[in-house]
Amino acid sequence: DYNNPLFACLESDFEEENGSKFLNLYEMDLGLNCIVLKNRKKVSNDSYFMIPFKKGVFLFSQTQLEFLNLIENSNSNMIITSTIISVENMIFDYKQYIVTSSYSTKYDKKDLVIFHSENGKLYKINENTEKTEFFIEKFGEISPSLSFCIMKNGFLFSSSLSGFNEFYNIDYDMNLIQMNEKFENLNFISDFHNKFKDSEEQV
Fold first, then answer.
1. Nearest to 47 by CA among 27, 26, 20
2. Distance between CA 178 and CA 165 in Å, rounded?
3. Which of 38, 140, 149, 182 could form a disulfide with 78 if both were Cys (CB 3.0 to 4.6 A apart)?
């Protein structure tokens, strides 16, 4: 029942010999006020980061990147299917750098998923809906940070552990432009705002 919240998490089973790692799918039953394990899938032990996307998650590991799709069958059971994203379809070196944060939103009436690696590079995940394929392209580069977000006025804000924060404008061509003004003086709206606002109204 999609009225009940679903959530996925990475968990290690230390009762097994090698401490195997699983992607566990839970459902919060609002009627019974309890959490039920709907399904689980064994994943690589070096899996470390997930990004929610539609009815599934992108799962990052140091050996591969895959999309796990969550499908409900006729018996209301959740089936987890896997799609491996090939190296040819990405420019992100998942064996050398790890992902530290991500942000998902709507842009131009499409899903926009951006993730940030420890070396400061931002990447965008594109979906080919006709073939159920995913492609990764570089989105920009910022200073290594703990987290980032895209505000409703269309600006990108990043925050680092040292307190060094940055503010970026996103133009119509999805290019990042670092802002030199102080935050309190930014009273104008980003070029990115109009498409961002139109997409938000469609949600």
1. 20
2. 11
3. 38
Strand 166-170 relative to strand 147-150, pairing = unpaired
- CA-to-CA dists, residue 170 to 44, 105, 109, 167, angstroms: 36, 14, 17, 10
How many Cα atoms within 13 Å fall on the side-chain side of residue 3? 2
Q: Which helix (H) or strand (E) holds 41?
A: strand 34-43
pLDDT tens readout for residues 43-86? 888 999 999 888 788 999 888 888 888 776 655 566 777 777 76
**Residue in 150, 124, 119 with CA at minimum distance from that of residue 139:** 124
Q: Give pLDDT tens digits for 136-146.
A: 888 888 888 88
Q: How far apart are CA 24 and CA 169, in angstroms?
A: 38
Phi/psi-derived region of residue 140, left when phi > 0, alpha when psi is between -120 and 50, beta in every other case? left
Greatest C-alpha distance within the chain: 58
Q: Which residues of 46-80 are buried (b: 16+ CB within 10 A; e: fewer)?
A: ebebbbebeebbbbbbeebbbbbbbeeeeeeebeb
Mention every residue, 6+ apart, whose C-beta is less than 8 A from residue 189: 153, 154
